[in-house]
Amino acid sequence: MPELPEVETICRGITPLIVGLSIAGIIIREPRLCVLIPADLSASLHGRTVLAVSRRAKYLLIHCSGDCTLLIHLGMSGTLRFFAEPLSCERHDHVEIIFDQGGRLRFRDPRRFGAILLSHGDPLAHPALAGLGPEPLSDEFTTDYLYRRSRQRTVAVKSFLMDQKTVVGVGNIYASEALHAAGIVPWRPCGTISRRRYALLVKEVRAVLLHAIEAGGTTLRDFQSAAGKPGYFAQELMVYGRAGDQCRKCGGEIQNIRIGGRSSFYCSGCQS
DNA sequence: CATGCGGCCTGGCAGC
DNA sequence: TGCTGCCAGGCCGCAT
After folding, report:
1. I want to staple A36 with a disulfide (CB 3.0 to 4.6 A). Which of A40, A72, A122, A174 is the partner?
2. Residue A1 has pLDDT above 70, yes or no
C-alpha cells in the first residue's frame, strides 16, 4: 500500500492529533512486528510526550520527549488510524498507543510486513534509516545524482528507481507512473539512459509524488488516512493497474510485464 | 559488487 | 457454493 504519498498523508493527518499528547501505554497484540519485546517497548514509551511527527522515506517518525523516536513502517498493508474513543479492536489490529488525554493510535496490518522500531538519539542514524538514498522532493535528488549513480549499471531503470538506496519513497505504483510521464520504457538498463532523460525523470518523479500527496494518496484496496478517508489518486493513474486499457495520452494499449518480480505497466506508444 | 529471486503473511478475486 | 491458484502498494537475505 504505502509509498511516499500515502505515508506523507498519514504523517500530516496524525500530526495535529497526537502532538502534545503523552503516552499512557502501548498494547501489542502481535509482537513479531516490533523489534523490542512488548514490556521493553512499553517501558521505553510510558510517560513520554509526542513532540513531533515526521516522515523519512516510507517510515513514519514519532518524535517523543527524552530523545526517543518511534519508527513505524506500514509494509504492504499497514494503516495507522487515530480514534478519539475506544473501539473494539478487529482482526489485524496489532498495536495500539494509548494517550493520557484520551485517544489512541491504532496500527492495523493484515499482511504483517510492517515494523515498529525504537530509536534513541538521532533517528536518522538508526540502521533502518542510515543507508537510505535522498528524499525525492529534496534538493539532493538531482539529474546529476541519478545520472552518475546509474552509470555502468545494467538494472532496469524501474528497479533502479524503486531501490531505496537510489531514492526513497518511490514504490511500484509511482515508479510506473513517473516512467510513463517521462516517456521511458521501464525495462531499459539504467546505465544507458541519457542525462537529458534523467532530467525529465527527476521532474516527473517529483510531479507525480506531489500530485498524489495533494490527492491524499492512492487507495487501491484498503489505504486510508488517519481519519479513515481514502486517497483519490487512483482515478488519476495513467498506467498502473490499467493493463489492456487505452493510454490516456496516446490511445495505445497499456501493457503489463514483470520486472524484478513486480508488475510493471507502460504504454509502448508513449515510452521508449 | 551487482543482480535476481524466493520468502515473509493474509486476503481477495478469477476460474473451474 | 467451494475449492485452488494467483496476485497484491515492501523489503531482506541468499545464491549466482
Report:
1. A40
2. no
